[in-house]
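Hi support team,

I'm filing this because I wasn't sure whether my run with 2-acetamido-2-deoxy-beta-D-glucopyranose finished correctly. The job status page said complete, but I'd like someone to confirm that the output block is well-formed before I use it downstream. Pasting the exact inputs I used:
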Amino acid sequence: MYFAELVVFLSTYYIRARGFSLFGHGDGLNFLFKEINETAALFDSSEVQTKWMRQPLDNFDKSETRTWKMRYFQRLDMWKPKGPIYLFMNGEGRAGKGFLQTGMMYELAKETKGAMFLSEHRYYGDSKPFDNYTTENLKFLSSSQALADNARLIKRIKLSPLFYSSKVVVVGGSYAGNLAAWMKLLYPDLVDVAIASSGPVLAKADFFEYLETVSDDFEQYGTPGCFDKISKIFKRYEDMFKTDDGIKLLKEEEQICDETDMNKLQNQQLFFLYKASEFMGVAQYGDLNSIKMHCEEINNNSQVLSSKDDETNMWNERRQCFDYDFDSMIESIKSIDWYISWIYQTCTEFGYYQTSNSNNRLFTDNIPVELFYNMCTDTFGPEFDKKRIDEGVLKSNEMYGGLNPNVTKVVFVNGELDPWHRLSILEDVSYDAPAKTIPFSSHCRDLFSDRSGDPEELKEARRYIKYLVKKWIGAGEYNM
Ligand SMILES: *[C@@H]1O[C@H](CO)[C@@H](O)[C@H](O)[C@H]1NC(C)=O
Ligand SMILES: *[C@@H]1O[C@H](CO)[C@@H](O)[C@H](O)[C@H]1NC(C)=O
Ligand SMILES: *[C@@H]1O[C@H](CO)[C@@H](O)[C@H](O)[C@H]1NC(C)=O
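And here is everything the job wrote out:
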């Protein structure tokens, strides 16, 4: 769930993830779509139609009369009468057509003769209620508004006599994995089944477990000496910040801009977060092989190489140096629609801040939760303070039930390597709401189709999930 500039070497399945954006944002979907669309480009997309639906700006206040247009895609060529409806819910990013052309939901639709839809989340991609995302304009952005938008979409689809009696299966990954589960929770009359893939359903401000899992992944699956090497590099960074000479040397070694004040605590914290993000992506999107490859690279270097292409422009192209300046970074965030939208959701609903407050401190302890609270305040205004963020987190967990949602016919799927699994459901909620944790797998991998490099455990999990869905919708034959 965060922005990643990725080079995907399909031949070796080595995913090298660099330069994530920071700040607890997920953006798994941006990543997923990038990959799935690259794969899907191999297939014909002429069957996928783009549609628009007018939605109220505020689903819960009838006195607000403004509206906006939500984008969605549909694909009906495999549908046969009485076939189910599949709705792929997009999350925090631009929607693409890829998951209507390949992936697990596509296979399910094919095997059960289903109709497929894919909806774009309000405030992301082309589904924009406003041109200008000021704090005032962002107040209609929330998971509950998005769920209500999707409920209206399903109702509209089911108005058609074709789909009147069709079962409805919703699918989502990452933040949208939460949304899929919560659709079933809040709209059980409209939704029959949900696949919640890698959904961090528990909101939490200080999400220290994230870096703890990254650390565990490298300790457990890294090459010999890798963990110690990483630890040494980060301790050295920490020591360098203690003296003026150290900072001077660090600025040279790390190509940091002369003007960037690295005595400023927030800039130092940003530096540590940026360096840690080079490992976060490998744990979140990689596999055992990519962890080993990353270790090899680390063993060859005495520093952690920083990405020169992330959306926050930490690398200043004009000046050819890294500018770890907190204030300029906030300005960059404000200029990117999906980024400011997602950060708004973390500041108002979920937190998810990847801090270093763990006992297992591979990356030292220089990324406090205050960094993120400051980000909220500096981006949206003084009222977006710790108190408000903590209240938002509490409210989300009360509304959706945290790790114990009152749902049936929802499957919660997670990858063992993926740090997000720590906020998700790993044990069956009930017989009808099972959990599936996949060894050696990462974020949302189950939503893809089988590839030859996939571990057997992952392929088996996909078969199991498809079996559950078919069983729950009562599809003719549902052998595993
Ligand atoms: C967006 O709104 C802000 C505050 O009202 C204003 O300063 C800014 O110029 C606007 N930007 C655009 C692109 O309209
Ligand atoms: C690390 O160095 C070795 C020996 O010089 C080289 O063979 C290998 O390709 C390097 N690995 C990476 C990932 O740079
Ligand atoms: C769970 O949901 C069911 C029906 O959807 C409802 O009857 C029951 O009261 C709910 N349980 C709790 C603890 O909210």
